[in-house]
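Field notebook, page 504. I keep forgetting to write these up properly, so this time I am using the form the group agreed on. The chain and the ligand, 1,5-di-O-phosphono-alpha-D-ribofuranose, are recorded exactly as supplied. Prediction of the bound pose follows.
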Amino acid sequence: MELKSRILDLKIDGEKAILSDEVARSLGVCHGNRVRVSGKTGSATTFIALTSEIVGDDEVGLVSDFSDKIGVVEGDLVELTPTGRPNSANYVRKKIYGEFLSREEMFELIKDIANRNLSNYELSALVTAVSIRDMSMDEVQWMTEAMVEYGDSLEFTEYPIVDKHSIGGVPGNKITLLIVPIVAAAGLYIPKTSSRAITGAAGTADIMEVLAPVKFTAEEIYQITKQVGAAIVWGGATHIAPADDEIIRAEYPLALDPVSILIASVLAKKIAVGADKVVIDIPVGDGTKIEDRKEGSKLARDFIEIGERLDMEIECAITYGGSPIGRAVGPALEAREALKALEGKETPKSLIEKSCSLSGMLFEMAGTSSKDEGTEKARELLKNGKPLEKFKEIIEAQGGNPDITSEDIEIGQHKETLTAPSEGYVTSVNNKSIVNIARALGSPSDKKAGLEICKKGGDEVCKGDPLIHMYAEEKWKLKEGMKEAKKHFPLRVEGIVLERIPEL
Ligand SMILES: O=P(O)(O)OC[C@H]1O[C@H](OP(=O)(O)O)[C@H](O)[C@@H]1O
Ligand SMILES: O=c1cc[nH]c(=O)[nH]1
C-alpha cells in the first residue's frame, strides 16, 4: 500500500510507524505487528503503532530517526508491506510452552533481541515464560555466550581482572560505590558495569550517575580502567551485552527477574569486560528475590557451574537481605550515604561490613591477601582514606566533579516524615514496601527522590517518633509516596509481647 509520509519529531523505542485504524484494517495488521517501509532510496522493517489522532487515512507517521535511516522526508510516498514474525518470535512461543531451545535457536533469539527485532510484547512474553518455566543449564550457558557474542568486549592483557555483581533485590544496596574504590585502591583492575534499577528503586548505574556520567563505549571503559584502575558505568549505554539491557527494559515494568536470565545477564557482562575472578552477592531474606537460604545456595552453585563452563572463577556471598542495607534509598540519597562512608563519617555498620567482606573476598581470590585476612585489609584501607581518593579519581575520569563531598549532594526539596503509630520496637522493615514508596516518590528517574529510614529492626520507638523521611522533587509525588506508605506500612512496630494465649 502506498502512503504519504508524515515525519514525527519524536523519540520512541520500538514502534516507529504510526497508522490510522482504517489503514491498519485494510493492510490486515494490528498494533505491534511488523511492516516494511520502502522509500526511494532505502527500506527497513519496524513495528506499528495505531492512532487516528495524528495521521490521516492516506498517511503513515514515521518517527524521525527511522525516516532518516531510510532517506524519507515529509510528503514522500512510501510503500508499506506487512512482514511476518522472525523465527526467534517462535522460540519465545517455545519457551511459553516449556520447550527447550537448541544452541542455534538461543543464539538467533539473542541476536534478534540485541538488534531490536523483537517487539516489547514478545520480550515481555519471554520474561514471563522464563519466570514460570525456567531454563536448562545448557540454555543459560548459551544465553550467556550469545549475549557476549552479539556485543563489544574489553581485551585486557594484564590479569587478574576482578569484578563483583549483586543479583539485586535488597533496597539501599549501594555497596558497589564502596567496593570498587576499595579494590582499585589496592591496585587491582575492576571495570564495573551495572544495570539501572530492575526490581528496585535505584540501580548502581542510577546512583553513580548522581556523581558522574555513566554512559561510555567499551573502548572508553577500557581507557578509564587503564588510567585509574576502575570504572562504574551503565552497561546499557555500552554495546557490551546489549541484549541484556533490552531484556532488563522488559523486566522493569513487570518487576520480574527470573533467575536463569539473571545468571546469563550477570555473567555475560563479567565475561565481556574480561573479568576472570568474580564475587556474586546473593541477598536472601523476606522480600528479596531469593527468600530462602537453601534457594540462595542453589543459585550460588548454578553461578559457579556456569562460571566453570565459561572459564571464570566465581565465589558467591549469601548475604543478609531481610531489610535494607544502610538507611538511604534512592539515587542521590544513596550516593550521599556511600560518599559519607568513604569520607569516614558515621554510617550504618551493615553498609561497611558488607562492603569490606565482599572486597575481602576479591583480595583473597586475587591473591593480594591471604585467606581470612581480606576483610581486615579492606577495613584498613577504608580507614586510611585511599578508597576516597580512588573514588575521586574515578569520578574525574568519568567526567564528574572530583571535589564533590557528601554534603554537596542535593536531595528532593519536598519532604514529609512518617511517624510511629504507637510505642514499641521495630520488628521488621519491609523491603517491598520500601521500594514501592521510593518508586512512588519518583525514584529512580527523579534522582533526588527517595527516603531515609530512621529506625531499623530492634530499635525502640515512642509514638510519634520519625520512622522514615521521604523526599520528592515534585509535590504530587510526595503525596503518592505518603499514600503508598499508609496503604502498606513499611515498618512493623510491636510490643515485646507479640501475642497472648489465651487472649484476654
Ligand atoms: O533493581 P534490583 O533488581 O534490586 O537490582 C539491580 C541492581 O543490582 C546490580 O547491582 P551491582 O551492579 O552489582 O551494584 C545491578 O547492576 C543493578 O544495579
Ligand atoms: O545485572 C543484573 C542484576 C540482577 N539481575 C539481572 O538480570 N541483571
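OBSERVATIONS:
- The first helix runs from residue 21 to 27.
- The pocket of uracil (ligand 2) is lined by residues 167-168, 195, 198, 257, 261-262, 265-266 (CB under 6 Å).
FOLLOW-UP: compare against the apo run.
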